[in-house]
Amino acid sequence: MTRPHAPRIHALGIAAALALGPGLLQTVAAQQAQTSPTAPAAPQPPAQRATAQKTPGVAVADQRMMRDLAQANIAEVETGRMAQEKGASEDVKRFGAQMVEDHQKALTELQELARTKDVELPTEPDAKHKLVATGLKALSGAAFDKEYIRMVGVTDHRQTLEKLQRTQRETGDNNLRAYAAKTIPVVQKHLQHAEGMRGKASHKSAH
Question: 191 and 146 in contact (C-beta within 8 Å)?
């Protein structure tokens, strides 16, 4: 004969829970959620699945090429500014100014390309280029000019040219290939100019 009193007991339980505050209600709700059957997860809409699968990626080799080229451009800008400040000859100062202008432009174009592909580029030179810059900072006058043209003008530009040519040959990315094709003539011109300056300096020192 206890069944008729069940609604009253249930009502008293709710009243007690309300009197104890929202914390108890949250606890009760949590317990009920644990004991209730779990609803199956809603399936992902077909349109969303198709979009996720179509998102393109960038090949690891292409990312590495872009980062290498970014570091080369950053280093050329940094040492070019140094040449403008420390260069003894007007030829070296002008060459440094040209490096800043051309390689900053090349770097900006590469950064814009990387943004379209969600590729993060470095913001400073690598260890090798930092070592070259450190060595140049310790020099001045004609000694600086000679080392700058040898290491940056000739050696670095030869290496950068090789990287660009390899990128143009090996990349499967049409945009990156176009960037390399556009930048190669600029770097070739820099290299030829630097080799001419080094030959001119060698001729002077021989006499």
Answer: no
